[in-house]
Amino acid sequence: MRIARISLDGTPAFGLVEGAPGSETVTVLAGHPFGVIERTERTVDLADVRLLAPVLPSKVVGVGRNYAEHVREMGGEIPDEPVLFLKPSTSVIGPGDPIPYPMLSHEVHHEGELAVVIGRLIREVPIQRAFEAVLGYTCGNDVTARDLQRSDAQWTRAKGFDGFCPLGPWIETELDPSDVALTCSVNGELRQSSRTSLLMRGVAELVAFVSAVMTLLPGDVILTGTPAGVGPLHVGDTVSVEVEGIGTLRNPVVGDD
User: Fold this and answer.
1) Three-class SS string for the chain?
2) What is the pLDDT of residues 75-119, one digit of tens each?
3) Any idea what the Cα angle at residue 253 is, between residues 156 and 222, rounded to 5°?
4) Residue 176: which of 197, 153, 199, 193 has the closest Cα?
5) Cα 223 from Cα 225, distance rounded (Å)
6) Could you give the count of Cα atoms lying within 13 Å of 186 in the half-sphere of its Cβ?
7) Which residues of the chain have pLDDT under 70?
């Protein structure tokens, strides 16, 4: 099931995306998808609506250094435990929304990732029950000001600019995240290509680990980590993150005027 968040008559709404590529329709839901999903009788063509970020999370929890090849390309060491950081809710944008290139940075990088959307309130969930707390999955881009990441003692500024967390195009609830392809391209040039089977810590372990630290609320997002191949973005670029079984998230890069 594909759950999208759309702008409908100027008002955000959730809907189920159905149909073959190129002829999809959206059946509008009554309320939100965090609980019993209720369809309404209203159906619109996907081409006639604007896709929004699939959720507005209270927080986005990033996981650093979770692909060994990325750790090596960054000159780091394999961590003993997942490395967590937070991205603010104001960093979240949707498919097609522009990524502003901040004036404070001269080295902004893309980081394509599989994103986990939490479906219910959890705290200290055991790993054996972690998937019960997952609503589904979407594509994410952990945009990072690499120069600020190097200069600062922590990653908040480098990861936290407005527009630095594109999510979308929708939430796929029936994905098996254990081994799907993940790619990131810039202007059609392939930059990152890997599979989630190469994650050092998988989805269940990450959900359990994060929920042992903080309460997760419905709609919160965990970014599972980026593979090797991160690289620069420039004003005028279009960056695309694709996850097998979900779809493609595209965003243009614009000047932060």
Assistant:
1) CEEEEEEECCEEEEEEEECCCCCCEEEEECCCCCCCCCEEEEEEEHHHCEECCCCCCCCEEEEECCEHHHHHHCCCCCCCCCEEEEECHHHEECCCCCEEECCCCCCEEECEEEEEEECCCECCCCHHHHHHHEEEEEEEECCEEHHHHHHCCCCHHHHCCCCCEEEEEEEECCCCCCCCEEEEEECCEEEEEEEHHHECCCHHHHHHHHHCCCCECCCCEEECCCCCCCEEECCCCEEEEEECCCEEEEEEEEECC
2) 888 999 999 999 999 999 999 999 999 999 999 999 999 999 999
3) 40
4) 197
5) 6
6) 19
7) none
State yes or no: cis peptide before 102, omega within 30 of 0: no
Bridge pairing between strands 60-64 and 221-223: parallel
Phi, psi (deg, nearest 5) at residue 173? -90, -15
Residues 6 or more apart in contact with residue 143 via CB below 8 angstroms: 99, 108, 109, 110, 111, 159, 161, 163, 164, 165, 166, 233
What type of residue is 79? P
Give the dihedral sign, CA 5/32/17/167. positive
| Residue keyed to tokens 């999955």 | 137
Please name every residue paired with 192 in a beta bridge, in sequence order, or none if there are none: 184
Only one residue has tokens 């759950």, namely: 3
Q: pTM above the 0.85 mark?
A: yes
Is the CB of residue 93 less than 8 Å from the CB of residue 254?
no
Hey, CA dihedral for 34, 184, 251, 100, is it positive or negative?
positive
